[in-house]
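Give me the 3D structure for Non-homologous end-joining DNA ligase.
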Amino acid sequence: MTPITEVEGRRLPLSNLEKVLYPATGFTKGELLHYYATTASALLPQLRNRPISFLRFPDGPDGQLFFAKNVPPRTPAWVKTAEVPRSDGVSRQILVQDLATLMWAANLVTEFHTPQWQADAPARADRLVLDLDPGAPADIVQCCEVALWLRERLAADGFSSYAKTSGSKGLHLLIPLVPVPSERAGAYAKSLAQEAEAALPHLVVHRMARNLRPGKVFVDHSQNSAAKTTAAPYTLRARARPTVSTPVTWDEVEACRDRGDAGDLVFLADDIAPRLERHGDLLGPLTDPGGAGRLPAGPS
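Predicted structure for Non-homologous end-joining DNA ligase (300 residues):
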């Protein structure tokens, strides 16, 4: 029998709690649900009012993975949704506005991915993202070096920037913006990637071509497109172990660069609660409109 739990007055069936999702560590679906419940205070502000895309892995990272944007079948009527414009018309996507919705979605076994804009202002970016993706033998250590250069470059334009691990190989830099059209945010992000390549030609590439990337860090600016999404802060990832896309301090980024140990910035689900207790939500400023920066002058 599927157990029923009540969350914020909503009755939720939570299935297969003993199922092992990550064989390398024995991490179960019940532990996944516990992880999302205990990090909800930090995760929910990063998801709220952003149409959610799900990467589902119901049989674990070694099973079938499928990406879903549309509202799943049998979604409860109380789950909020939003209309999202697409090139082929308008669709509806889930909004994770509260703990009950978070736990319902987590029961599907998901990574959470969000756009850089909110549902009430489609294609108007209120944050910028730079995805630093290393090409072997480069790793997150080299991403840290690039991130620190980008931090200074962004500061020169008046921006505060925040770092998190991707939960896979690299780093994400997030910058809060006074909302602008996504095309304009994307153009600025591309210019930053090109500047980084010019300044660090031995280390950075701004184009996606695979033959350019071995030993370098690809500064992926494309996720600022209105149609693209990025792994949300605090989401679990469908990797061999239950890694988390984890906010990190700039001191930690500098230490990883200096020590040269990629393992310094690998965080698992069990690491997050102690980090929240120690640091609080390092990405809290992203949800404060008062901290948003303005793009350099240009057409709006």
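The chain has seven helices and 16 strands. Let me know if you want a second pass.
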